[in-house]
Amino acid sequence: DPDISKATLQAEGPISWGVAQTFMTWWISSDGKQAIVLRGNEFLWFLTFFMFVFEIGWIITRGILKKSWPIDKNETILLLGYIFNYAPFFLIHRPMYLYHYLTSFIFLLLLIPRVAPRMITCISNITNDKTLATTIMYFSILLVIVNFFLLAKTTYGF
């Protein structure tokens, strides 16, 4: 279908996939009222990308203060896995789609258990309120789940 080909062959650059700001139209009904759209959970993708930025900042800060590498080998491998799977797409000048980004996104998902407690501790230290930090974490999880249900109709077609 030429109309679908036009929609799927257009894609944003690699930075838009990291924060789920683009999507890929997979199917449109003949009346145009229903569609299946391939897109990431916008809140989860933004949150994991923010965690990556936080992680880099935390590593730089700790590295300068302690004069040593502050994370262990497993976390370093996950971090490098994300960087080495995502960075090459900035050098490729053709449309990039969701499935190109998924491998690097898996590394970010695996980093969550390492980075999330650190973020909660930092929020607790800044606000002097551990309850607030925990509430923000649970609210973020709730937003990810709500976003999933809101996108389920277009993602899965029901």
Question: Care to describe what's here?
Answer:
The protein has helices at residues 2-9, 14-18, 42-66, 73-86, 98-127, 130-156, and strands spanning 24-28, 35-38. Helix 3 (42-66) packs across helix 5, helix 3 packs antiparallel against helix 6 (130-156) and helix 4 (73-86) packs across helix 5 (98-127). It has six helices and two strands; from the N terminus they run ααββαααα. The radius of gyration is 18 Å and the shape is flat. The longest helix has 30 residues, at 98-127. It is mainly alpha-helical and 158 residues long. It has a two-stranded antiparallel sheet.
Briefly summarize what is shown.
With 158 residues, this protein is mainly α. The protein has helices spanning 2-9, 14-18, 42-66, 73-86, 98-127, 130-156, and strands spanning 24-28, 35-38.
Q: SSE layout and pairings?
A:
Elements: H1 2-9, H2 14-18, E1 24-28, E2 35-38, H3 42-66, H4 73-86, H5 98-127, H6 130-156
Antiparallel strand pairs: 1-2
Helix pairs in contact: 3-5, 3-6, 4-5, 5-6
